[in-house]
Queue: 4 jobs
Job 1
Amino acid sequence: MTDSINGFWVALERDTRVDDAEPLLAAVRQLKGVADVRANVVDSGSYIAAMQAQTELRSKVAAFLGDLFK
């Protein structure tokens, strides 16, 4: 027996203005089986999470490069 899927999360590669994202939202709404599509508005929490992830990645890259050139 296989699992059933009731939805998907889709992440855009960068924050996009609402008017620029509208064609993409309209296209997804036209796909067979799609009941609803909603945009997720950027807020301070998502900005903070992105900056924390970016800082962590920079730190790991710096540590890797530091180890590489010891």
Job 2
Amino acid sequence: MPEYICPHCKQPINDDEALLCLYCGKSLNRSVGFMGKLKYPTPKIIIVIIIVLVLVSFTILIIR
């Protein structure tokens, strides 16, 4: 079972599903599933969402 190191207090966390550190209580900044990725967005996700929105709006403009 791989352990995760808390970025704040540097203590090892053995719980795979933990979202908060057991020692300091701060967020581990883990993204779980699609909604978790939206909660902690990376620039790549934001760029992909913008490109998709531009393509969809362009397609709707062409169809009219």
Job 3
Amino acid sequence: MKLATAFAALLMITALPVAAQMPPPGEMTPDGPGRNPDVAGRMRSEPGRMPGNSMFAGMTDAGKAIMRTAMRDADPRTDRAATDAARDRMLTVLDADRLDPSALKRAMDDEREAASVAKARHQSAMIVGFQQLSLADRRAFVVNARAVRNVMKDRIAFRDRRDPRGPGAMPPPQ
């Protein structure tokens, strides 16, 4: 009992500095409820730090509208049902008492085909969008896309350096 109380007290003491920095739930900051304006502002001001906000940086309003439309039309969630159904069939086959390799192969082939159809639809929508952009907007898009890619590489490298399980390790189970 004393050990549990001591442990709970230790947890509370270590959590106090973090809790002191957080606004109360629902309190509005310039960046929304419960957000740290210093971090959010800094992330938005650096190219590539916030893909949703900086992917179109430097593009004209017309170029931004074109790309938003192309990305909306290329949304992979619209083709997700067929892929999910094939994955569910794979799990059903794997869960059976006796494994049916031919049924598993068919389900895997169906999943690959559904994913290929979704990818082709995505590429077609993006090609239409890119064709409508001006040269300046295309170049701005390329600069931002490279910046986002580099930021993601840096984040992954940082995570891999800090993770004691080594580079490329799967996240711990939750």
Job 4
Amino acid sequence: MSRRQRRSWNIDGPRLLPRNEVHVYAYEQGCMIAMLDGELRENHVAVTMLYVSPPWRGSLVLRDMLAALKLRYRHVVVARRDASGVSSGA
């Protein structure tokens, strides 16, 4: 990132919640701008949902969120969902 493109958000997480849920959030000026939800499985975290607002900064925010997640959990995968919305792993 160049000096002009310094990130203006803070990353919170990853947090391990009950039922092996893993969450990472990004905040800017006290407002949540992104969230990443996942599930801790045997040897990896399966990312089940990502959201960034506004979407134009998505790749930068998501890169920082994934980096925070990978500091704690080495293996991260994106879970695929079938037509019913059920996560099938990766």
